[in-house]
Amino acid sequence: MRRALLLLLALFTLPVTAAELKPFEASYTADWKTMPISGTAGRSLKKLDDGRWQLDFEASMLVASLTETSVFRLENNAFLPQTYRFNRSGLGKSKQIELDFDWGEKQVIGSDRGNQVRVPLNRGLVDKSTYQLVLQHDVAAGKKSMSYQVIDGDEVETYDFRVLGEEKVETKAGTVDAIKVERVRDPTQSNRKTVLWFAKEWGYLLVRLNQVEKDGKEYQIMLKEGTVDGRKVEGAQ
User: Which UniProt keywords apply (predicted)?
Assistant: First the structure.
């Protein structure tokens, strides 16, 4: 469940202008396929007074909870992360990450679970939350395959995705027309599977996510309700 909720974080490179970004709020249900346990999650995007954008995520289940906040700005049609904060409690393990993106010095500086982080910063590098927003916009722009450089601790990892096609998806808010996308992994390295659906009519908001872990356990996250640019998300009933 925790991993599935992190994927909602875990949660971009075609030109996008600030005008094309639309604030949103969305709440989700999260369920194990084989166990009677459920959780909730929320995700939102808002524009700050200084012109930057803030992307928030929070999730809870049983005795565990997590929060994640990314602040970024747009410059010459590129997403530039400014700060990233992550906090998880419960599940026997707490985790705290604080990253600051210094574009002047070209460095990411911060800490991950108490360990110092210092990584070279190049345009195109994004945090584990912001990349999801860029993925959303790449799908909206019609891209069929995407690859992102994502900072994870003191390492930079490559996340690859490909579009599988269009599909009608059942959500708590009704049936929506969506674009189906899968995370591409090397089968010799991992047998995990991740599939995501983005609603076409609603700013390509993430409305569903399915995750199969390497041990075969399956999770599902589904949109409960949401708004995009002030409009309530409503699918066909």
Answer: Signal
**Rama region for 164: left / alpha / beta (φ>0; ψ in -120 to 50; rest):** alpha
Helix runs in 108-175, H state only: 130-140
Surface-to-core class of residue 14, CB atoms within 10 Å of its CB (0-12 exposed, 13-18 middle, 19+ buried): middle
- The pair of structure tokens assigned to 178 is 């969506």
Mean pLDDT over each residue of the chain, to the nearest integer? 86
Partners of residue 167 on adjacent β-strands: 178
42 burial (CB, 10 Å; 0-12 / 13-18 / 19+) is middle
pTM: 0.85
Nearest to 86 by CA among 63, 59, 124: 59
Measured distance between the N- and C-terminal CA atoms of the chain, rounded to whole angstroms: 28
**CA 51 – CA 37 distance, rounded (Å):** 40
Burial class (CB in 10 A: 0-12, 13-18, 19+), 139: buried
